[in-house]
Amino acid sequence: MRNVVLTSIVLLSASSFIGETVLAGEGNPRKELAKVMKQFVKEAKSAGYRFNVNGAGGTSDSENHVLNRKVAWVRSSGYSLNHLMYLPSMDAYISADKGAIEHEGYWRSIYSIPKGRLLKSMVSLPEEILLEALRSNSKVTWAVEGQVLNIDMHKNRSNRLFTEVNSMSTMDRGLYLVNKSKKRTIPNRTKGVIQVEIDPETKHVKKVSMELLAACKDRHGRMPKKGVEYTEGTEHVVYRVDYDIQIGNTVTPIEPMKLSTELKNILN
C-alpha cells in the first residue's frame, strides 16, 4: 500500500439532482453544465467510469500557482460505480460522505486513521464536485466553446471548502508569524475554480480539475492588498486536483463490487 499525504472535501449525495426545467437552451454554459451533469450522474450510477487522479497542495509565490513547497499529494487510479469509488493501490473505498480503508489486515472507517482522513480529504467523487458547484450559485462560463466549462466558485463556498480541506491536511503548515503565535493563512480570502472538459460529440465528461487558493499575511502579520493576493512574489496556499475520466461504450465494463458484510457496515 502506497504512502499518501493528502487533504479534505465533504460533498453532497448525487441522489438529488436538478430537474428537467434547467436543461432547455443550447449554448448557455450553466444549462450546458446541467445537461452534461445529468448524463454523467446517470452513467456513473448505472455503468460507472474509470479514472486517474493526481492532486497536490502546499504553498506558492508565483502567479501561475506552481508549488514551491508541497505538503500534500496523491497520484492513483481506480473505478467508480453507483457513486462508490475504489482505489485498488490504496485498498480504499470512497463514497460521497463515507469511506473504508484497509489497515493492518482490517477494514476501518476512512476517518479513523490519519492516512484515511487525508485520503478522503483530497479524493472525492468527481460528480459530487460538479453537483455542489451547480448548487452553490457559482459562475459558469465557457473557457473553450463547446469543450471546456469554467466554474468560479462562490466566495462562501470556496471559504468553506478551504476550511474543510485545511482542517485535515494543514496545507498551510509552517506558515507562522515571526513570533510563531498564529498562522498566516487568511481563511476567508479564498478563490476556487473548477474546469470541466467534455467531449463535444458524446457530451461525456473527460476531465474535472479543481484549484483552490487561500491568501496569506506576510511574516509580520500584514494583510496583502486586494487583487495581489495570488500574484508573483506573494505567498499563498494552493490545493489542486485533476481527474482524467474514462466513461462510455469504449471503456471496459465495470463489474458490481462484491462487498463483505464488514465493508457494508462501514459504508452504509
Count helical runs.
Answer: 5
Q: Kindly state the percentage of residues in helix.
A: 10-25%
Element order: H for helix, E for strand: HEEEEEEHHEEHEEEH
Q: What is the total tally of β strands?
A: 11
Percentage of residues in strands = 25-35%
The averaged pLDDT comes out at 86
- Uncertain spans: 1-25
Domain tally = 1
Biggest pleated sheet:
11 strands, antiparallel
Strand order of the largest sheet: 6-5-4-3-2-1-11-10-9-8-7
**Structural class label:** alpha+beta
Shape type: globular
Distance between the termini: 24 Å
Radius of gyration: 19 Å
Q: Which characteristics define this entry?
A:
268 residues; alpha+beta; 11-stranded antiparallel sheet; 22% helix; disordered N terminus
Walk me through this protein's architecture.
The chain is α+β, with helices and mostly antiparallel strands and 268 residues long. It has one domain. Helix content is 22%, strand content 33%. It has helices at 29-46, 114-122, 126-135, 155-169, 261-267, and strands spanning 49-60, 69-81, 84-87, 92-94, 99-103, 106-109, 139-144, 148-152, 185-198, 205-216, 236-246. The protein is globular.
Compose a concise summary of this entry.
Helix content is 22%, strand content 33%.
Question: Mind sketching the topology for me?
Answer:
Layout: H1 29-46, E1 49-60, E2 69-81, E3 84-87, E4 92-94, E5 99-103, E6 106-109, H2 114-122, H3 126-135, E7 139-144, E8 148-152, H4 155-169, E9 185-198, E10 205-216, E11 236-246, H5 261-267
Antiparallel strand pairs: 1-2, 1-11, 2-3, 3-4, 4-5, 5-6, 7-8, 8-9, 9-10, 10-11
Helix pairs in contact: 1-3, 2-4
